[in-house]
Amino acid sequence: MPFSQEPAKINVKLSERRDLHFDSLAEVLADAEATAAASPRTTGNWSAGQVYHHVAFGIEMMSKGVDVPVTLRMKVFGRGLRLFGMHVKPIDPGINPPAKVAAVFRPPDDVTLEAGLQKLRDEIAYAQEHGLTHPSPLFGRMSADDAVAMQCRHAELHFSFVHPGSGGAAGEADPAA
């Protein structure tokens, strides 16, 4: 029986990244649309479709409310970080949350570019109509401006690994491209 091996993880702290800044969810979507149209390649561990799906899930959590298992210890830690404005500052790559939390936030392995992009379109449209009114599982309740800023910083981090060009995840063809 052949031995199946999981692909090696890319050290995202050393990966090529784009320098991005978004001020609105409309800018987030515009970048995703433009990059997706250019046969994106990624320099992280996820495909472009997975990145878009993951960012969309973050927006969904705050626009629709999603029950995410976050320990009291993590909530206290998150509220402490919020006091220093960490919810609206650029996010460094390579953060490794606890396994149970990571499992909730990890996008499906088989999400296509189009499916991830469509989820992002849908969640941004919903958020623009209804607002980001639910608390962040980590940072708690926040103002509308802070909620948008946090989602923009989150998108900047993940979209920084998605580049216009020919290719897919880790240099391989994206099945949806």
Write the element-wise H/E pattern from the N-terminal end onward.
HEHHHHHE
Average predicted confidence as pLDDT: 84
Overall geometry comes to globular
* Gap between N and C termini: 33 Å
Low-confidence stretches: 1-5, 169-177
- Roughly what percent helix? 40-55%
Q: What proportion of the residues form beta strands (DSSP E)? A: under 5%
Whole-angstrom Rg = 16 Å
Notes on the structure:
By secondary structure, the protein is mainly α. Helices cover 47% and strands 2% of the residues. It is built from six helices and two strands. The chain has helices at 25-36, 48-65, 72-83, 99-105, 113-130, 144-159; strands at residues 41-42, 162-163. It has a two-stranded antiparallel ribbon. α1 packs antiparallel against α5, α1 packs parallel to α6 and α2 (48-65) runs antiparallel to α6 (144-159). The termini are far apart.
Task: Describe, in short, the structure shown.
With 177 residues, this protein is mostly helical. It has 6 helices and 2 strands. It has a two-stranded antiparallel ribbon.
What is the strand and helix layout of this fold?
Layout: H1 25-36, E1 41-42, H2 48-65, H3 72-83, H4 99-105, H5 113-130, H6 144-159, E2 162-163
Antiparallel strand pairs: 1-2
Helix pairs in contact: 1-5, 1-6, 2-5, 2-6
